[in-house]
Amino acid sequence: MTQTVYALVRYQDCAAAVDFLTSAFGFAVHEVSKNDEGVVNHVELVAGDDKLMLGIGKPGGPGVYVAVEDVDAHHDHAKAAGAHITMEPVDQPYGSRDYGCTDPEGNQWWFGTYRP
């Protein structure tokens, strides 16, 4: 199946966002584009078989959910890398284990075991 829907997260500093997201959350870089001034303005990151796009803009808005295998280990790694934890890992009534955090620019991220 070909991916059709892509999460898009806005950052004022996409280059710094790439450094944080790859370090804290374990994403891999697929593509980085720069404008004529050499500023990173578009990024594609890989999470499993899916891609996430980053672009220049005002941070905030809807959050992004990413399914991971080991929520507690992911939480510990993200927290150590500087993510601000907004919800500690918790078992949900629908069978998932989730945690929430924000990145340095205030975007909301959710990680858990639920795979719709």
Report on this model:
- It contains 2 helices and 8 strands.
- It is of the alpha/beta class and 116 residues long.
- The strands form 2 sheets. It has a 4-stranded mixed β-sheet with strand order 1-4-3-2, with helices on one face.
- The chain is globular.
- The mean pLDDT is 93.
Strand sequence of the main sheet, in spatial order? 1-4-3-2
Strand runs, count:
8
- Percentage of residues in DSSP E strands: 35-45%
Low-confidence stretches: none
Mean pLDDT: 93
Net shape: globular
Distance between the termini: 15 Å
Instruction: Determine Rg (CA atoms, Å).
Output: 14 Å
- What is the H/E string? EHEEEEHEEE
Q: What portion of residues is helical?
A: 10-25%
Largest sheet report: 4 strands, mixed
Backbone structural class: alpha/beta
Number of helices: 2
Write out key terms for the chains shown.
four-stranded mixed sheet; globular; 116 residues; alpha/beta
Summed up, what is this model?
By secondary structure, the chain is α/β, with parallel strands linked by helices. Helices cover 19% and strands 43% of the residues. The mean pLDDT is 93.
Topology of this structure?
Elements: E1 7-11, H1 14-25, E2 28-34, E3 40-47, E4 50-56, E5 64-67, H2 71-80, E6 84-91, E7 97-102, E8 108-112
Parallel strand pairs: 1-4, 5-8
Antiparallel strand pairs: 2-3, 3-4, 6-7, 7-8
